[in-house]
Write a structure and sequence with these properties.
single chain; 298 residues; alpha+beta; Dna Ligase, domain 1; D-amino Acid Aminotransferase, Chain A, domain 1; 4-stranded antiparallel sheet; 9 helices
Length: 298
């Protein structure tokens, strides 16, 4: 209490906010010491590290409230092509209409149609099994990459049907998506989910296998401006990947932000959408490509 008696007059004479940080955060503190400071509106924290973290959060929150509010972009979203879990080919078709690009592709009902599509697109291609009940295709053996020619496509088609039938007996496929192999780039994830308490929440971060391995993502409101989304992306732990690392070129961070903005606008325009997941979204020096997409609607 001698410390309180010494500090109280100085705090009373200053209009600068103050916080008291103690040393030795496992040392017992008399309740009257804490109560005396709290009666004067001065927070007491048990370590300098806790105090600095709390001040950092308060400062960031204040800066966010003080930032100029920019009207978020709105879109006219067409009706969804279905309900429940939309298979990838329908989700990509829907998102492409909103300006979110994906590799050239088409749905094949049999292997001969798949070969015609592959010849038109140009080898190498990707083959992916399509069904509403097959949200995680890779886990069921429903994805084949770098298919080089008709013979390889025929083998991949037969093998994929057998693997999917074994992994999920009785699943009925809409067909197989034949898609151009995309060049390598930086894998990102962009998505959104409708939380029962918070409403729509957007997400962006490192994608592909890094989503589960590193969980390096940012959660954000669905109505941020383009500049605010870029600022969020720059706070990723792996943000240096976006600006070039070890000689790699910088990627089009503005194009990533555009996709996040469109996904947020879609969640606001279509309240029946429960979840959107684009993973990976490949970022290049110019533009992006959605390699996989999932939409779940009530």
């Amino acid at each position: 209490m001698d410390k309180f008696d010494a500090l109280a007059p100085a705090l009373a004479q200053s209009d600068k906010p103050a916080a008291v940080a103690l040393l030795g955060d496992d040392f017992p503190v008399p309740p009257e010491f804490l109560a005396a400071f709290r009666q004067k509106g001065v927070p007491v924290l048990r370590s300098p590290e806790r105090a600095l973290r709390a001040l950092g959060h308060a400062t960031a929150y204040g800066q966010m409230l003080a930032a100029k509010r920019v009207e978020a972009a709105a879109i006219e979203a067409p009706p969804l092509p279905g309900r429940g879990t939309l298979p990838e080919y329908l989700a990509k078709q829907y998102l492409a209409a909103l300006g979110i690009p994906a590799p050239e592709r088409a749905l094949a009902r049999d292997v001969l149609e798949a070969m015609r599509i592959a010849q038109r697109i140009g080898y190498p291609v990707v083959l992916k099994a399509q069904a509403a009940a097959l949200a995680h295709k890779s886990d069921a053996g429903g994805v084949a990459l770098n298919i080089a020619d008709d013979a390889a496509l025929d083998t991949a088609w037969t093998g994929m049907q057998a693997r999917v039938a074994k992994a999920q007996p009785g699943v009925s496929l809409d067909g197989m998506l034949v898609e151009a192999m995309a060049p390598k780039g930086v894998e990102m994830i962009v998505g959104a989910r409708r939380d029962p308490e918070w409403g729509p929440v957007a997400l962006a971060g490192l994608g592909g296998i890094w989503t589960e391995a590193l969980a390096d993502v940012r959660l954000m409101p669905p109505d941020l401006s383009h500049e605010q989304i870029v600022a969020e992306l720059e706070q990723l732990k792996g943000a240096r990947l976006l600006y070039g690392l070890r000689g790699a070129p910088s990627v089009d961070i503005g194009a990533i932000a555009d996709v996040v903005s469109k996904i947020g606008a879609l969640m606001r325009a279509r309240p029946e959408i429960r979840e959107i997941d684009i993973n990976p979204l490949i970022a290049y020096p110019r533009g992006v490509l959605a390699l996989d997409a999932l939409i779940v609607a009530d």
